[in-house]
Design a protein that fits this description.
Blueprint: E1 9-12, H1 18-29, E2 33-38, H2 41-45, H3 47-58, E3 63-67, H4 73-87, E4 92-95, H5 110-138, E5 141-146, H6 149-153, H7 159-179, E6 184-191, H8 197-200, H9 204-212, H10 222-233, E7 244-247
This protein binds nicotinamide-adenine-dinucleotide.
Length: about 250
């Protein structure tokens, strides 16, 4: 990467818990310094966030933990300016922050649709656009967007979420075409059912039924996703761009 005397810098949005925290830890273990984002200072102060940050530090990473709302363009702009001034260019951007607000399309309120689009999709456009400036200058960088199988296949009850995750795939492929000539890659990872707070909210019956539709008969772990993201962030994936890696244990949709 560009700065030869310093470790490459990875930024993980929503990186204090769940899949994001596992990605941050794996990248720390792989020799990255980190910017870890979450929504606000209250969440940053929570024990789970502090434990995630401490784990990355124990793995040898310099960790810059910063809370801002990634669905707010002005906040993203201020954050990227601060990060660039304090730590230099971002080498690897992982757009991981995401929310669900499920409901059947006929009953879904426009605000409910828009809010999920703002957090899951607009944020990735904002962060990619802002971080790509530095990546373009150094002529290297990797953007990894956390999509979902819901964006690949659609999912009843998730018109907002599936649209946002499908949009991320279009964004990823477009970035790969626009920025490939500058040495920047863009790829998406589409997880299936992963055991996190997001899926722990599902009723037991739904979980059991879902497992029957998975070839490996289990939900994925956060480490299953983190390993794939770390691969895409590594030099081993230098010639991969514009791809969607589905990591779902063989899910029948
Ligand atoms: P999670 O709810 O445990 O964590 C989400 C993180 O995003 C939190 O740290 C939260 O603070 C952060 N976040 C939410 N809104 C934010 C905002 N406006 N600004 C900044 N940060 C914000 O979720 P998870 O299960 O770890 O999921 C992580 C990603 O993986 C999401 O994009 C999700 O859609 C995707 N995903 C999850 C699953 C799954 O089964 N868990 C499956 C497919 C895709």
């Amino acid at each position: 990467m560009a700065n030869e005397n310093k470790k490459p810098l990875a930024l993980v949005t929503g990186g204090t818990r769940g899949i994001g925290a596992a990605i941050a830890l794996k990248l720390a273990q792989d020799g990255f310094d980190l910017v870890i984002n979450c929504l606000n200072d209250d969440e940053l102060a929570q024990e789970i966030s502090q434990q995630s940050i401490a784990a990355c530090q124990s793995a040898g990473a310099d960790v810059y933990a910063l809370a801002w709302d990634v669905s707010d363009y002005a906040a993203c702009e201020a954050a990227v300016e601060k990060i660039t001034a304090d730590r230099g260019n971002v080498d690897v951007l992982v757009n991981n922050a995401g929310i669900t607000k499920d409901g059947l399309m006929l009953r879904m309120k426009p605000e409910q649709f828009q809010q999920v689009l703002n957090v899951n999709l607009n944020s990735a456009f904002y962060m990619s656009k802002l971080c790509a400036k530095g990546m373009t200058r150094q002529r290297s960088g990797k953007i990894i967007n956390i999509s979902s199988v819901a964006g690949v296949y659609g999912n009843a009850g998730q018109a907002n979420y599936a649209s946002s995750k499908a949009g991320l795939i279009g964004l990823t492929k477009t970035i790969s075409k626009e920025l490939g000539s500058r040495g920047i890659t863009a790829n998406a990872v589409a997880p299936g059912f992963i055991d996190t707070a997001m899926t722990q909210a599902l009723p037991e019956k739904v979980v059991e039924a879902a497992k029957q539709g998975i070839s490996l008969r289990r939900f994925g772990t956060v480490e299953d996703i983190a390993g794939v993201v770390a691969f895409l962030a590594s030099p081993a994936a230098d010639y991969i761009t514009g791809q969607v890696l589905v990591v779902d244990g063989g899910l029948a949709m």
